[in-house]
Amino acid sequence: MIPVIGLEGQRVGVLGLGRSGLAAARGLRAGGAEALCWDDGEAARERAAAEGFAILDPMAAGGFDAMACLVVSPGIPHLYPAPHRVIAAAYGAGVPVDNDVGLFFRSLGQGDWAFHATPPRVVAVTGSNGKSTTSALIAHILAEAGVPCQLAGNIGRGCLDIEPPVDGEVVVLELSSYQTELARALTPDIAVFTNLTPDHLDRHGGMGGYFAAKRRLFAEGGPERAVIGVDEVEGRYLAGQMSEAAVDGRVIRVGSGKMTGPGWDLSTRKGWLSEFRKGRQVSSIDLRGVVGLPGAHNHQNAACAYGVCRALGLAPRVIEAGFATFRGLPHRSQRVAEIGGVAFVNDSKATNVDAAMKALSAFPRIRWICGGLEKEGGMDVLAAATGAVVKAYVIGREAQAFALKLGAIDVEVCGDMATAVARAAAEAEAGDTVLLAPAAASFDQYDSFEARGADFVAQVEKLRG
Q: Which residues fall within 8 angstroms of residue 86, CB to CB, at 6 or more apart?
Protein backbone atom coordinates (compact mmCIF):
# COMPACT_ATOMS: atom_id res chain seq x y z
CA MET A 1 0.00 0.00 0.00
CA ILE A 2 1.12 3.57 -0.74
CA PRO A 3 0.33 5.81 2.27
CA VAL A 4 -1.15 9.14 1.16
CA ILE A 5 0.92 12.09 2.33
CA GLY A 6 -0.01 15.72 2.90
CA LEU A 7 -3.42 15.04 4.43
CA GLU A 8 -2.40 13.86 7.90
CA GLY A 9 -5.05 14.55 10.52
CA GLN A 10 -7.55 15.89 7.97
CA ARG A 11 -11.04 14.73 6.97
CA VAL A 12 -11.15 13.39 3.40
CA GLY A 13 -14.31 12.26 1.64
CA VAL A 14 -14.20 9.12 -0.51
CA LEU A 15 -17.02 8.77 -3.04
CA GLY A 16 -17.39 5.35 -4.66
CA LEU A 17 -16.21 2.26 -2.80
CA GLY A 18 -15.13 -0.10 -5.54
CA ARG A 19 -11.57 -1.31 -6.09
CA SER A 20 -9.96 2.12 -6.45
CA GLY A 21 -12.15 3.79 -3.84
CA LEU A 22 -11.36 1.29 -1.11
CA ALA A 23 -7.66 1.41 -2.01
CA ALA A 24 -7.80 5.21 -1.67
CA ALA A 25 -9.48 4.92 1.72
CA ARG A 26 -6.81 2.48 2.91
CA GLY A 27 -4.01 4.72 1.64
CA LEU A 28 -5.54 7.73 3.36
CA ARG A 29 -5.84 5.86 6.64
CA ALA A 30 -2.25 4.60 6.36
CA GLY A 31 -1.12 8.19 5.84
CA GLY A 32 -2.92 9.45 8.93
CA ALA A 33 -6.00 11.01 7.32
CA GLU A 34 -9.59 10.32 8.35
CA ALA A 35 -11.40 8.70 5.39
CA LEU A 36 -15.14 9.44 5.34
CA CYS A 37 -16.63 6.95 2.91
CA TRP A 38 -19.80 6.99 0.85
CA ASP A 39 -21.30 4.96 -1.98
CA ASP A 40 -24.82 5.04 -3.38
CA GLY A 41 -24.93 1.25 -3.00
CA GLU A 42 -25.66 -0.17 0.44
CA ALA A 43 -23.56 -3.31 -0.12
CA ALA A 44 -20.48 -1.20 -0.93
CA ARG A 45 -20.99 0.87 2.21
CA GLU A 46 -21.24 -2.30 4.28
CA ARG A 47 -17.95 -3.60 2.87
CA ALA A 48 -16.21 -0.37 3.81
CA ALA A 49 -17.77 -0.38 7.28
CA ALA A 50 -16.52 -3.95 7.78
CA GLU A 51 -12.98 -2.60 7.30
CA GLY A 52 -13.57 -0.04 10.01
CA PHE A 53 -14.12 3.01 7.82
CA ALA A 54 -16.51 5.76 8.86
CA ILE A 55 -19.57 6.01 6.60
CA LEU A 56 -20.77 9.55 5.96
CA ASP A 57 -23.22 10.85 3.37
CA PRO A 58 -21.61 14.15 2.28
CA MET A 59 -25.08 15.47 1.42
CA ALA A 60 -26.12 15.26 5.08
CA ALA A 61 -26.03 18.46 7.12
CA GLY A 62 -22.41 19.44 7.76
CA GLY A 63 -21.10 16.72 5.44
CA PHE A 64 -18.54 19.00 3.81
CA ASP A 65 -17.53 20.82 6.99
CA ALA A 66 -13.73 20.91 7.32
CA MET A 67 -13.38 18.39 4.47
CA ALA A 68 -9.90 18.77 2.94
CA CYS A 69 -10.85 17.17 -0.36
CA LEU A 70 -13.20 14.68 -2.01
CA VAL A 71 -11.66 11.60 -3.67
CA VAL A 72 -13.82 10.24 -6.49
CA SER A 73 -13.85 6.85 -8.21
CA PRO A 74 -13.39 6.95 -12.01
CA GLY A 75 -16.82 5.60 -12.94
CA ILE A 76 -18.63 8.55 -11.34
CA PRO A 77 -19.32 11.51 -13.70
CA HIS A 78 -17.65 14.69 -12.50
CA LEU A 79 -18.37 17.02 -15.43
CA TYR A 80 -20.34 15.62 -18.39
CA PRO A 81 -23.10 14.77 -19.03
CA ALA A 82 -23.64 16.19 -15.51
CA PRO A 83 -21.67 15.93 -12.26
CA HIS A 84 -22.86 13.47 -9.66
CA ARG A 85 -24.88 15.32 -7.03
CA VAL A 86 -22.15 14.89 -4.38
CA ILE A 87 -19.46 16.21 -6.69
CA ALA A 88 -21.64 19.16 -7.70
CA ALA A 89 -22.13 19.92 -4.02
CA ALA A 90 -18.37 19.70 -3.41
CA TYR A 91 -17.78 22.22 -6.19
CA GLY A 92 -20.35 24.49 -4.57
CA ALA A 93 -18.71 24.12 -1.14
CA GLY A 94 -15.26 24.87 -2.53
CA VAL A 95 -13.94 21.40 -1.66
CA PRO A 96 -11.17 20.22 -4.05
CA VAL A 97 -11.99 17.05 -6.01
CA ASP A 98 -9.28 14.48 -6.80
CA ASN A 99 -8.94 10.76 -7.49
CA ASP A 100 -6.67 7.91 -6.44
CA VAL A 101 -4.28 8.60 -9.32
CA GLY A 102 -3.75 12.16 -8.13
CA LEU A 103 -3.14 10.91 -4.59
CA PHE A 104 -0.70 8.31 -5.93
CA PHE A 105 1.48 10.82 -7.76
CA ARG A 106 1.46 13.32 -4.88
CA SER A 107 2.52 10.57 -2.45
CA LEU A 108 5.01 8.50 -4.45
CA GLY A 109 8.70 9.22 -4.10
CA GLN A 110 8.69 9.92 -0.39
CA GLY A 111 10.28 8.16 2.56
CA ASP A 112 12.82 5.52 1.54
CA TRP A 113 13.22 6.82 -2.01
CA ALA A 114 16.08 9.08 -0.94
CA PHE A 115 18.08 5.92 -0.17
CA HIS A 116 17.51 4.11 -3.49
CA ALA A 117 20.63 3.69 -5.63
CA THR A 118 18.34 3.55 -8.67
CA PRO A 119 15.10 5.45 -8.03
CA PRO A 120 11.94 3.59 -9.10
CA ARG A 121 10.24 4.87 -12.23
CA VAL A 122 6.61 5.14 -13.30
CA VAL A 123 5.29 4.36 -16.79
CA ALA A 124 1.75 5.58 -17.50
CA VAL A 125 -0.16 4.30 -20.54
CA THR A 126 -3.29 5.89 -21.99
CA GLY A 127 -5.17 5.87 -25.31
CA SER A 128 -8.45 4.62 -26.74
CA ASN A 129 -7.47 1.08 -27.69
CA GLY A 130 -4.62 -1.21 -26.75
CA LYS A 131 -3.62 0.38 -23.45
CA SER A 132 -4.34 -2.76 -21.39
CA THR A 133 -2.33 -5.00 -23.71
CA THR A 134 0.47 -2.44 -23.95
CA SER A 135 0.65 -2.07 -20.16
CA ALA A 136 0.59 -5.81 -19.54
CA LEU A 137 3.19 -6.38 -22.27
CA ILE A 138 5.56 -3.81 -20.76
CA ALA A 139 5.25 -5.48 -17.36
CA HIS A 140 5.76 -8.92 -18.91
CA ILE A 141 8.91 -7.90 -20.80
CA LEU A 142 10.39 -6.29 -17.70
CA ALA A 143 9.62 -9.34 -15.57
CA GLU A 144 11.15 -11.67 -18.16
CA ALA A 145 14.25 -9.46 -18.17
CA GLY A 146 14.54 -9.64 -14.38
CA VAL A 147 13.48 -6.04 -13.75
CA PRO A 148 11.19 -5.72 -10.68
CA CYS A 149 7.85 -4.24 -11.69
CA GLN A 150 4.22 -3.81 -10.62
CA LEU A 151 1.14 -3.39 -12.83
CA ALA A 152 -1.78 -1.30 -11.59
CA GLY A 153 -4.27 1.47 -12.36
CA ASN A 154 -7.13 0.65 -14.70
CA ILE A 155 -5.83 -2.92 -14.85
CA GLY A 156 -5.25 -5.22 -11.88
CA ARG A 157 -4.86 -3.37 -8.59
CA GLY A 158 -5.67 0.19 -7.69
CA CYS A 159 -2.55 2.33 -7.95
CA LEU A 160 -2.51 3.04 -4.19
CA ASP A 161 -2.82 -0.69 -3.49
CA ILE A 162 0.66 -1.57 -4.76
CA GLU A 163 3.64 -2.20 -2.52
CA PRO A 164 6.17 0.62 -2.05
CA PRO A 165 8.58 0.15 -4.98
CA VAL A 166 12.02 -1.29 -4.32
CA ASP A 167 15.32 -0.12 -5.74
CA GLY A 168 15.22 0.04 -9.56
CA GLU A 169 11.57 -1.05 -9.77
CA VAL A 170 9.21 0.07 -12.53
CA VAL A 171 5.53 0.78 -11.82
CA VAL A 172 3.35 0.41 -14.94
CA LEU A 173 -0.02 2.17 -14.79
CA GLU A 174 -2.84 1.84 -17.28
CA LEU A 175 -4.85 5.07 -17.06
CA SER A 176 -8.25 5.75 -18.60
CA SER A 177 -9.47 9.17 -19.70
CA TYR A 178 -11.70 9.24 -16.62
CA GLN A 179 -8.59 8.97 -14.45
CA THR A 180 -6.32 11.39 -16.31
CA GLU A 181 -9.02 14.05 -16.59
CA LEU A 182 -9.55 14.47 -12.86
CA ALA A 183 -6.16 13.66 -11.27
CA ARG A 184 -4.65 16.79 -9.70
CA ALA A 185 -1.11 15.38 -9.97
CA LEU A 186 0.29 13.51 -12.99
CA THR A 187 4.08 13.04 -13.05
CA PRO A 188 5.10 9.80 -14.81
CA ASP A 189 8.68 9.26 -15.92
CA ILE A 190 7.48 7.80 -19.23
CA ALA A 191 4.04 8.45 -20.73
CA VAL A 192 2.45 6.47 -23.58
CA PHE A 193 -0.35 7.53 -25.95
CA THR A 194 -1.45 4.55 -28.05
CA ASN A 195 -4.13 6.09 -30.29
CA LEU A 196 -7.37 8.06 -30.26
CA THR A 197 -10.75 6.97 -31.63
CA PRO A 198 -14.29 7.97 -30.58
CA ASP A 199 -15.23 6.54 -27.18
CA HIS A 200 -16.78 7.80 -23.93
CA LEU A 201 -17.90 10.93 -25.77
CA ASP A 202 -20.81 11.53 -23.40
CA ARG A 203 -18.40 11.65 -20.43
CA HIS A 204 -16.13 14.22 -22.09
CA GLY A 205 -18.52 16.42 -24.05
CA GLY A 206 -17.23 15.22 -27.44
CA MET A 207 -13.91 14.34 -29.10
CA GLY A 208 -12.20 17.57 -28.07
CA GLY A 209 -12.86 16.95 -24.40
CA TYR A 210 -11.90 13.29 -24.75
CA PHE A 211 -8.53 14.15 -26.29
CA ALA A 212 -7.97 16.92 -23.74
CA ALA A 213 -8.45 14.40 -20.92
CA LYS A 214 -5.74 12.13 -22.31
CA ARG A 215 -3.44 15.02 -23.24
CA ARG A 216 -3.28 16.03 -19.55
CA LEU A 217 -0.99 13.07 -18.88
CA PHE A 218 1.61 14.78 -21.05
CA ALA A 219 0.84 18.48 -20.62
CA GLU A 220 0.49 18.34 -16.82
CA GLY A 221 3.09 15.69 -16.13
CA GLY A 222 6.02 16.69 -18.33
CA PRO A 223 7.36 13.12 -18.64
CA GLU A 224 11.04 12.58 -19.33
CA ARG A 225 10.08 10.41 -22.31
CA ALA A 226 6.89 10.23 -24.35
CA VAL A 227 5.95 7.29 -26.59
CA ILE A 228 3.23 8.52 -28.94
CA GLY A 229 1.20 6.78 -31.64
CA VAL A 230 1.07 9.16 -34.60
CA ASP A 231 -1.36 7.44 -36.98
CA GLU A 232 -4.07 9.95 -36.00
CA VAL A 233 -3.79 13.72 -36.23
CA GLU A 234 -4.18 14.04 -32.45
CA GLY A 235 -1.08 11.91 -31.92
CA ARG A 236 0.91 13.95 -34.41
CA TYR A 237 -0.22 17.13 -32.70
CA LEU A 238 0.74 15.76 -29.28
CA ALA A 239 4.17 14.64 -30.51
CA GLY A 240 4.76 18.12 -31.90
CA GLN A 241 3.70 19.69 -28.62
CA MET A 242 6.13 17.51 -26.65
CA SER A 243 9.12 18.06 -28.97
CA GLU A 244 11.60 20.91 -28.71
CA ALA A 245 13.01 20.08 -32.16
CA ALA A 246 12.63 17.53 -34.95
CA VAL A 247 15.51 15.48 -33.53
CA ASP A 248 14.29 15.60 -29.91
CA GLY A 249 15.03 12.09 -28.59
CA ARG A 250 12.63 12.52 -25.68
CA VAL A 251 9.72 11.76 -28.04
CA ILE A 252 9.42 8.29 -29.60
CA ARG A 253 6.93 8.28 -32.48
CA VAL A 254 5.06 5.05 -33.32
CA GLY A 255 3.39 4.60 -36.70
CA SER A 256 2.07 1.88 -38.99
CA GLY A 257 3.48 3.49 -42.13
CA LYS A 258 6.93 4.45 -43.33
CA MET A 259 8.66 6.62 -40.75
CA THR A 260 11.05 9.12 -42.32
CA GLY A 261 11.63 11.64 -39.54
CA PRO A 262 15.04 12.61 -38.16
CA GLY A 263 14.16 11.67 -34.58
CA TRP A 264 13.42 8.40 -32.75
CA ASP A 265 10.79 6.47 -34.71
CA LEU A 266 9.19 3.02 -34.55
CA SER A 267 7.41 1.54 -37.58
CA THR A 268 5.21 -1.58 -37.80
CA ARG A 269 4.91 -1.98 -41.57
CA LYS A 270 3.87 -5.40 -42.87
CA GLY A 271 4.33 -7.12 -39.51
CA TRP A 272 7.89 -5.91 -38.91
CA LEU A 273 8.76 -3.67 -35.97
CA SER A 274 11.62 -1.42 -37.04
CA GLU A 275 13.46 1.12 -34.92
CA PHE A 276 14.94 4.23 -36.54
CA ARG A 277 17.28 6.80 -35.02
CA LYS A 278 18.02 9.97 -36.98
CA GLY A 279 16.70 8.35 -40.15
CA ARG A 280 18.77 5.15 -39.85
CA GLN A 281 17.36 1.73 -38.99
CA VAL A 282 19.03 0.29 -35.90
CA SER A 283 16.94 -2.84 -35.22
CA SER A 284 14.00 -4.90 -36.47
CA ILE A 285 11.76 -7.68 -35.12
CA ASP A 286 9.43 -9.96 -37.08
CA LEU A 287 6.11 -9.91 -35.22
CA ARG A 288 4.12 -12.04 -37.65
CA GLY A 289 4.68 -15.28 -35.78
CA VAL A 290 4.12 -13.94 -32.25
CA VAL A 291 1.03 -15.88 -31.12
CA GLY A 292 0.11 -13.52 -28.30
CA LEU A 293 0.15 -10.42 -30.53
CA PRO A 294 -1.96 -11.15 -33.64
CA GLY A 295 -2.84 -8.42 -36.13
CA ALA A 296 -1.68 -4.92 -36.98
CA HIS A 297 -3.32 -3.39 -33.90
CA ASN A 298 -1.32 -5.64 -31.60
CA HIS A 299 1.82 -4.85 -33.56
CA GLN A 300 1.18 -1.21 -32.68
CA ASN A 301 0.81 -2.20 -29.03
CA ALA A 302 4.09 -4.08 -29.29
CA ALA A 303 5.81 -1.03 -30.74
CA CYS A 304 4.61 1.16 -27.87
CA ALA A 305 5.85 -1.40 -25.34
CA TYR A 306 9.13 -1.68 -27.24
CA GLY A 307 9.60 2.10 -27.09
CA VAL A 308 9.10 2.13 -23.32
CA CYS A 309 11.48 -0.76 -22.73
CA ARG A 310 14.13 0.81 -24.96
CA ALA A 311 13.76 4.06 -23.03
CA LEU A 312 14.29 2.02 -19.85
CA GLY A 313 17.54 0.65 -21.27
CA LEU A 314 16.60 -2.86 -22.48
CA ALA A 315 18.27 -4.27 -25.58
CA PRO A 316 16.14 -5.14 -28.66
CA ARG A 317 16.81 -8.87 -28.37
CA VAL A 318 15.76 -8.89 -24.72
CA ILE A 319 12.51 -7.22 -25.71
CA GLU A 320 12.02 -9.68 -28.59
CA ALA A 321 12.39 -12.60 -26.16
CA GLY A 322 9.65 -11.04 -24.02
CA PHE A 323 7.35 -10.78 -27.04
CA ALA A 324 7.80 -14.48 -27.75
CA THR A 325 6.56 -15.58 -24.32
CA PHE A 326 3.63 -13.15 -24.06
CA ARG A 327 0.29 -14.94 -24.23
CA GLY A 328 -2.03 -11.95 -24.35
CA LEU A 329 -4.80 -10.84 -22.02
CA PRO A 330 -8.22 -12.38 -21.51
CA HIS A 331 -10.89 -10.87 -23.78
CA ARG A 332 -8.29 -9.12 -25.98
CA SER A 333 -7.52 -11.19 -29.08
CA GLN A 334 -7.43 -14.19 -26.73
CA ARG A 335 -7.04 -17.46 -28.60
CA VAL A 336 -9.42 -19.70 -26.68
CA ALA A 337 -9.20 -22.95 -28.62
CA GLU A 338 -8.66 -24.62 -31.96
CA ILE A 339 -11.22 -27.30 -32.79
CA GLY A 340 -11.10 -29.18 -36.08
CA GLY A 341 -8.79 -26.59 -37.60
CA VAL A 342 -11.11 -23.72 -36.58
CA ALA A 343 -9.67 -21.07 -34.24
CA PHE A 344 -11.89 -19.44 -31.61
CA VAL A 345 -10.77 -15.95 -30.56
CA ASN A 346 -12.26 -13.87 -27.74
CA ASP A 347 -11.95 -10.11 -28.30
CA SER A 348 -14.87 -9.06 -26.11
CA LYS A 349 -12.91 -5.92 -25.19
CA ALA A 350 -13.56 -4.66 -28.74
CA THR A 351 -16.43 -2.56 -27.42
CA ASN A 352 -16.22 0.16 -30.07
CA VAL A 353 -16.13 0.26 -33.86
CA ASP A 354 -12.43 1.04 -34.17
CA ALA A 355 -11.37 -1.83 -31.92
CA ALA A 356 -13.58 -4.23 -33.87
CA MET A 357 -12.13 -3.03 -37.18
CA LYS A 358 -8.64 -3.80 -35.93
CA ALA A 359 -9.67 -7.27 -34.81
CA LEU A 360 -11.29 -7.94 -38.19
CA SER A 361 -8.02 -7.12 -39.95
CA ALA A 362 -6.06 -9.72 -37.96
CA PHE A 363 -7.44 -12.94 -39.48
CA PRO A 364 -8.01 -14.16 -43.07
CA ARG A 365 -11.43 -15.92 -42.90
CA ILE A 366 -13.74 -14.82 -40.12
CA ARG A 367 -17.02 -16.05 -38.66
CA TRP A 368 -17.82 -12.83 -36.82
CA ILE A 369 -19.88 -12.70 -33.61
CA CYS A 370 -20.92 -9.10 -33.02
CA GLY A 371 -23.62 -6.88 -31.55
CA GLY A 372 -24.69 -5.36 -28.27
CA LEU A 373 -25.31 -1.86 -27.01
CA GLU A 374 -24.20 0.46 -29.81
CA LYS A 375 -21.91 3.34 -28.84
CA GLU A 376 -21.63 6.81 -30.27
CA GLY A 377 -19.44 7.09 -33.37
CA GLY A 378 -21.58 5.23 -35.87
CA MET A 379 -21.35 1.89 -37.65
CA ASP A 380 -20.90 3.13 -41.21
CA VAL A 381 -17.12 2.69 -41.28
CA LEU A 382 -17.37 -1.00 -40.33
CA ALA A 383 -18.48 -1.97 -43.82
CA ALA A 384 -15.00 -1.17 -45.16
CA ALA A 385 -13.40 -3.59 -42.67
CA THR A 386 -15.51 -6.68 -43.33
CA GLY A 387 -13.64 -8.04 -46.35
CA ALA A 388 -12.41 -11.09 -44.43
CA VAL A 389 -15.82 -11.82 -42.92
CA VAL A 390 -17.47 -14.95 -44.30
CA LYS A 391 -20.57 -14.41 -42.18
CA ALA A 392 -21.70 -12.36 -39.19
CA TYR A 393 -23.70 -13.80 -36.27
CA VAL A 394 -25.40 -10.98 -34.39
CA ILE A 395 -26.22 -11.01 -30.68
CA GLY A 396 -27.85 -8.45 -28.38
CA ARG A 397 -31.31 -7.23 -27.51
CA GLU A 398 -31.37 -5.07 -30.63
CA ALA A 399 -29.71 -7.67 -32.84
CA GLN A 400 -32.07 -7.11 -35.78
CA ALA A 401 -31.38 -3.37 -35.88
CA PHE A 402 -27.64 -3.97 -35.46
CA ALA A 403 -27.63 -6.47 -38.34
CA LEU A 404 -29.22 -3.95 -40.70
CA LYS A 405 -26.17 -1.69 -40.28
CA LEU A 406 -23.63 -4.30 -41.42
CA GLY A 407 -24.01 -3.73 -45.12
CA ALA A 408 -23.99 -6.45 -47.74
CA ILE A 409 -22.22 -9.24 -45.82
CA ASP A 410 -24.02 -12.47 -44.99
CA VAL A 411 -25.73 -11.98 -41.62
CA GLU A 412 -27.65 -14.24 -39.25
CA VAL A 413 -29.52 -12.79 -36.28
CA CYS A 414 -28.84 -15.10 -33.34
CA GLY A 415 -29.75 -12.98 -30.33
CA ASP A 416 -27.69 -14.78 -27.68
CA MET A 417 -24.12 -16.03 -27.37
CA ALA A 418 -24.99 -19.74 -27.16
CA THR A 419 -26.83 -19.64 -30.48
CA ALA A 420 -24.15 -17.53 -32.17
CA VAL A 421 -21.26 -19.79 -31.14
CA ALA A 422 -23.17 -22.94 -32.06
CA ARG A 423 -24.16 -21.62 -35.50
CA ALA A 424 -20.70 -20.24 -36.28
CA ALA A 425 -19.02 -23.49 -35.23
CA ALA A 426 -21.46 -25.58 -37.26
CA GLU A 427 -20.76 -23.61 -40.44
CA ALA A 428 -17.02 -23.01 -39.98
CA GLU A 429 -14.42 -24.80 -42.08
CA ALA A 430 -10.80 -25.59 -41.30
CA GLY A 431 -8.80 -22.38 -41.52
CA ASP A 432 -11.69 -20.18 -40.36
CA THR A 433 -11.59 -18.06 -37.21
CA VAL A 434 -14.71 -17.68 -35.07
CA LEU A 435 -14.12 -14.19 -33.69
CA LEU A 436 -16.03 -12.43 -30.93
CA ALA A 437 -15.42 -8.72 -31.63
CA PRO A 438 -18.74 -7.09 -30.72
CA ALA A 439 -18.16 -3.47 -31.81
CA ALA A 440 -20.57 -2.59 -29.00
CA ALA A 441 -20.88 -2.37 -25.25
CA SER A 442 -22.12 -5.38 -23.30
CA PHE A 443 -24.63 -3.85 -20.93
CA ASP A 444 -27.74 -4.87 -22.82
CA GLN A 445 -27.08 -8.52 -21.88
CA TYR A 446 -24.09 -8.63 -19.52
CA ASP A 447 -22.68 -6.77 -16.52
CA SER A 448 -19.34 -6.23 -18.27
CA PHE A 449 -17.30 -7.10 -21.35
CA GLU A 450 -15.50 -9.64 -19.15
CA ALA A 451 -18.77 -11.45 -18.45
CA ARG A 452 -19.57 -11.46 -22.17
CA GLY A 453 -16.15 -12.89 -22.99
CA ALA A 454 -16.49 -15.50 -20.27
CA ASP A 455 -19.79 -16.62 -21.81
CA PHE A 456 -18.09 -16.96 -25.20
CA VAL A 457 -15.32 -19.08 -23.64
CA ALA A 458 -17.91 -21.24 -21.84
CA GLN A 459 -19.82 -21.85 -25.07
CA VAL A 460 -16.60 -22.81 -26.88
CA GLU A 461 -15.72 -25.22 -24.08
CA LYS A 462 -19.07 -26.95 -24.62
CA LEU A 463 -18.00 -27.69 -28.20
CA ARG A 464 -15.14 -29.81 -26.91
CA GLY A 465 -17.77 -32.22 -25.59
A: 13, 15, 38, 58, 59, 70
- Paired sense of beta strands 149-153 and 170-174, if any: parallel
Whether the pLDDT of residue 113 is over 70: the answer is no
- pLDDT tens profile 143-176: 999 999 999 999 889 999 999 999 999 999 999 9
Q: For the chain, what are the domain ranges?
A: 11-98, 104-324, 334-463
Output the pTM of the full model. 0.86
In this predicted structure, the answer to whether residue 189 has a pLDDT above a threshold of 60 is yes
- Sheet harboring 97-98: ordered strands across? 54-55, 34-38, 11-15, 67-72, 97-98
In this structure, CATH architecture of domain 104-324: 3-Layer(aba) Sandwich (3.40)
Compute the mean pLDDT over every residue in the chain, rounded to the nearest whole number: 94
The CATH number of domain 11-98 is 1.10.260.40: no
Q: HEC profile for the chain?
A: CCCCCCCCCCEEEEECCCHHHHHHHHHHHHCCCEEEEECCCHHHHHHHHHCCCEECCCCCCCCCCCEEEEEECCCCCCCCCCCCHHHHHHHHHCCCEECHHHHHHHHCCCHHHHHCCCCCEEEEEECCCCHHHHHHHHHHHHHHCCCCEEEEECCCECHHHCCCCCCCCEEEEECCHHHHHHCCCCCCCEEEECCCCCCCHHHHCCHHHHHHHHHHHHHCCCCCEEEEECCCHHHHHHHHHHCCCCCCCCEEEEECCCCCCCCEEEECHHHEEEEEECCEEEEEEECCCCCCCCHHHHHHHHHHHHHHHHHCCCCHHHHHHHHHCCCCECCECEEEEEECCEEEEECCCCCCHHHHHHHHCCCCCEEEEECCECCCCCCHHHHHHCCCEEEEEEECCCHHHHHCCCCCCCEEEEECHHHHHHHHHHHCCCCCEEEECCCCECCCCCCCHHHHHHHHHHHHHHHCC
Angle made by CA atoms 361, 362, 365, in degrees to the nearest 5: 85
83: left (phi over 0), alpha (psi -120 to 50) or beta: beta
The reported pLDDT for the residue numbered 246 is 82
d(CA 426, CA 269): 36
* CATH code for residues 334-463: 3.90.190.20
Beta-sheet pairing, 34-38 with 121-126: unpaired
Spatial separation of the C-alpha atoms in residues 429 and 350, rounded to whole Å: 24
Question: Cα(160)–Cα(12) distance, rounded to whole angstroms?
Answer: 15
